[in-house]
Here is the input.
Amino acid sequence: MHSENGHGIGDARTRGGLLKRLARDTRGNTLAIMAAALVPLAGMIGSGVDMSRAYMAKSRLQSACDSAALAGRRVMTNDAIDTAVRNEATRFMNANFPQRLYGTAAFAPNITRPVAGTVRITANTTIPTSIMSLFGFESLPINVSCDASLNFVNTDVMLVLDVTGSMDNDLNGTKKIVALRDAVMALYDQLAPTQQQLEANGLRLRYGIVPYSSTVNVGSLIRDANADFIANNVTYQSRVANYDNQIAEYTGEVQPPSAPVEQTYSASISQSDCDKYGQNANFGNFSRSAANGGGPAPQATWSRTFSNDESSGVDWGWPGANDTSGTNRTCRRRYVQTNTVYQVSDYHYVSTGYSYRPEVIDVSDYKMGGSVTYATNRQGQTEEGGSFDPFELANNGTGMGTNTLTWNGCIEERATVNTITTASGFNIPANAFDLDINLIPHNEATRWRPMLPQLVWRGDGTNMANAACPAASRRLQAWDRAGLLGYVNGLNPVGSTYHDIGMIWGARMISNAGIFADSPDTFGAMPVARHIIFMTDGQMDTDNGIYAFQGIERNDQRVSGMSNPSESELNGRHMQRFQMICNATKGQNVSIWVIAFGTTLTTQMQTCASNANQASTITNRDQLIARFRQIGSNIGALRLTQ
Here is the structure.
């Protein structure tokens, strides 16, 4: 082969000379070194490019894994990995790291539960190389792992539960009170693994419960905290028995017996009839004559003792009598009369009727939980005249009917103001002591009052003995399942719907201050998260004629200031108070969840919740259970643990 100028390209001499010259000439070494270095340099640059792509892919996949773990843990129920958890986690994984992103190989996340309360996700894939494939490295592995659990550090949950009469109604085939019991237990089961973990680490998860209707049952809780927080003398709408009819009492003095007095029968009679006459016994046409007479006191009384001795025959046909022979003769008899005279020794009083009015009643014994006696009628008498409430009458009178009773624990709230209307805003007036959840009682106006339905009467004479009283509330405590189940099974529907009293006591019992101070800001050097779950099956439903937590409104006028407020007016005022206490509670760093069960979720209820996501409408048992579980899943802060 030849070049164009005629010289052979493959001429051996020419090639040999060139190589020898290059070998002798050091000026060409740089070119050789650079050529030799290009191969490793290309590998280094290629590995940097491919590793950067792999790092970017792994970072993106790790973020997707974290979000998927959090999403899966959020929907986890009963501490189990089920289809819902897998679907939700996979959905978040694919949304944040679509399959084949960066050219990665297809993969499926592995979702497991390594320990109680934790969702773990692992994902393994590969990313193809570009430059490093020249050196035999076709792909790089990408592996990620993430755990998510719920951070329930010192969580206090207060259940404020509507147990009014309508909770006994069916909703889609299940009594609402039964659905509520099931939902509470579902919440407990949802949080049971977390409770165990916290207790193992010296922390706690606790529940308190406030069943409410037209009042709440917290009497024993207040008394246990301090009996002086309950008033000793309370003004009730009651009745008094008026004992103002004075009756004199007399002492009788028996006089000496009289001399025998003779009486002659008007006709001649047989000896046997004469014996009966002498003994003042009935015979023939004779009816016995009075043996006692006189009076009433202060008039003197007398008694006669009759006798007749026929052994001598002197009383039947006696000598000198008109008829002294034959079968019928004249008859006489004798009696001795004893007189009793009287003088005033004392007086007593009997009742002329009842008066229905506000009455101050001493409840110092009643509030302590012992059995107390009261009068049930106004029979009998008293030593002193006056008007007596049923307790006083039982202690001061004799002869009237009595009964015993024991305080069931339901309360009248402490003093308030009747100026709160729907236009009042959310600021609580200074003298609305019932709405001040942290105020320590220090005088009669700031103390609570025992409900006393057997002794409370409306002005029209209607007794309030059947006033509603829900189950006793429970302070925050760590429950076991059996204990909580036994408690909720004892919840029975009764009474009308007063939302404000339920929220007042829910807030009071989860406060970090006040008479209980049960929920401190920290425990075991860790913070405390506070939650109220407020569930109702109805709207505010007041009545000015029933005995509720502020007395009988038409008589006491503590909320409305009116003798006959309309239902809408009274409902509105109580609902405004509900909103006030909701607002104050959220200001105490308490998160509020509101559930409208088979009823409308009103604007006021939505406003009470801490945010829109924490207010919900539920229409059946399964939804209620699911909602309680969902709250359990969200009630603490989700966190990544790996």
